[in-house]
Write a structure and sequence with these properties.
Length: about 230
């Protein structure tokens, strides 16, 4: 089997040969809770066995917890397949470590490159000079900064569940930020590339609404013509 090789291959196609949402398993994600959350909103999730399976996906999800070095398991074939899908207009959602992977990289593992579809480098939270514990674990608020399809129906100030020590910089891609002794990007969105630094699957109704939005965006993508996305 070609791929990260952490789990047995599973069929990734429905009877029609098209999968709804592809949840990539590279050995560093809380896949069970993500699957349960999407099941709760009635969305079909499959785990691709090979990079080639992503050509059939109407949406791609990259989860992740832990050290940035774990994303190194996403070898070149997977990186190329995800990048090609993004260029074709396929919606992409990164969750927690998966969101950090969308950027150029992280100081946590300088030798491991991110996907690079969003500009910037993730860095360690400062903890307000030691006044706050790092990792940042628990509920915190979203401060919305602009229009977002992913956050449609999610109230400004909604509380969501975080567990992380590194965070992405606030760039033009940040549609929501959060303060934890410093301000960091908690939700990013540029075209069909989206990410959440927190865990939507553990964030109650606000998180489920985000997953509903992503599933709807992916569903609308089915049969739509591709549109290349500029890095930003």
């Amino acid at each position: 089997m070609e791929g990260p090789g952490f789990s047995p291959a599973r069929s990734t196609r429905s009877a029609t040969g098209i999968i709804m949402l592809a949840l990539i398993d590279y050995g560093a994600g809380n896949l069970t809770s993500v699957r349960k959350a999407f099941a709760a909103i009635g969305a079909e999730i499959e785990t691709p066995a090979t990079p080639q399976d992503l050509t059939h996906a109407t949406g791609i999800i990259v989860p992740g917890v832990g050290h940035f070095a774990a994303t190194g398991a996403l070898a070149e074939a997977w990186r190329s397949a995800v990048a090609d899908a993004v260029q074709a207009g396929t919606p992409l959602l990164g969750i927690c470590l998966g969101m950090q992977w969308l950027f150029d990289g992280s100081t946590e593992a300088p030798d491991v490159s991110g996907l690079g579809v969003l500009a910037g480098t993730c860095t360690r939270l400062g903890g307000n000079g030691g006044a706050l514990k790092v990792p940042h674990v628990g509920w915190n608020a979203l401060d919305r900064r602009g229009p977002s399809r992913l956050l449609d129906g999610v109230a400004d100030g909604a509380y969501v569940y975080f567990t992380h020590a590194y965070a992405a910089p606030v760039t033009d891609a940040a549609v929501a930020v959060t303060d934890y002794g410093e301000t960091f990007a908690s939700v990013v969105e540029r075209g069909t590339v989206m990410g959440a630094q927190f865990h939507p699957e553990k964030s109650g109704e606000a998180g489920l609404q985000m997953l509903r939005n992503f599933a709807a965006i992916a569903h609308a993508r089915r049969g739509a013509p591709g549109a290349a996305m500029e890095r930003g």
